[in-house]
């Protein structure tokens, strides 16, 4: 009996991009590959929730990463980012077959170098040509999925209990006001504060939590204070696996275009997503149970970290009433 081909996947650096790449890992596992993922340290706990992943190789310095890839004895690599360094690492580690898209002067590092597709739909389908170059089928589903463990779910219950959030009452709605990309992707914090009161007025039994990552804690606390502390702040001290356990408990997530948005969608949690400078056709939460709010201004999407016109109307033109209506249409009632 022959052993499975050990395959290296060089993961993207961003949380959302990594989640959107999970269907590629599913396709590789379905083709009999043993999937080893080279990823930044903070992504290790998230990738541990992906059913297709056999092992995670943590990136370090260039020399450390090359040594770790060599030790994995992978026979082929799928290089998902488009950077030069992401192709350099498996090349220097001596991985024989290196599937990646041309660009950024890295063609000689790839074997084969695959031409990028001209027409692009949603980002989850960006890697079709890489799979085809290896003679592999597309995944059975392009919907990203992650699965939590009983231990992760138990820790999520403890987090909510410490925050004094009832889990046996009305629907639990999370609000994620962050976006690591930059301030242009963030709906104004004052709107989030107003939204907490509007949600309570609309439905008295609703439970609210403000979800924060470690880099969003201060802006989230600002909303907490500005709204009269009616929603506790949770999540800032959690790794991505435990954050997934927390998100899984929600009946709805109201969020900017962000990594937790894609995590929630991969867990089957409906999202109301607020888009401004980025393109929802490319990075909306994948699936049918979500609503996207997008002003569709002439200047969007600009993909800038700060509004180059200084007015930020792509986000400011989306009102509290718009988000409230979308939440009412999307909410999954556990009753």
Word description of this protein:
The chain is an alpha/beta fold and 335 residues long. It folds into 2 domains: 6-133, 3-Layer(aba) Sandwich (Rossmann fold); 150-330, Glycogen Phosphorylase B (Rossmann fold, 3-Layer(aba) Sandwich). It is 35% helix and 16% strand. It has helices spanning 15-20, 22-30, 44-47, 62-72, 84-92, 128-133, 150-162, 189-202, 217-226, 240-248, 259-266, 280-283, 313-316, 320-330; strands at residues 6-10, 34-39, 53-58, 76-79, 97-101, 113-114, 172-176, 207-211, 233-234, 252-256, 271-275, 291-294. A 6-stranded parallel beta sheet has the order 3-2-1-4-5-6, with helices on both faces. Strands 9-8-7-10-11-12 form a 6-stranded parallel beta sheet, with helices on both faces. The longest helix is centred in the middle third of the chain and has 14 residues, at 189-202. The mean pLDDT is 92.
Tell me the layout of helices and strands.
Elements: E1 6-10, H1 15-20, H2 22-30, E2 34-39, H3 44-47, E3 53-58, H4 62-72, E4 76-79, H5 84-92, E5 97-101, E6 113-114, H6 128-133, H7 150-162, E7 172-176, H8 189-202, E8 207-211, H9 217-226, E9 233-234, H10 240-248, E10 252-256, H11 259-266, E11 271-275, H12 280-283, E12 291-294, H13 313-316, H14 320-330
Parallel strand pairs: 1-2, 1-4, 2-3, 4-5, 5-6, 7-8, 7-10, 8-9, 10-11, 11-12
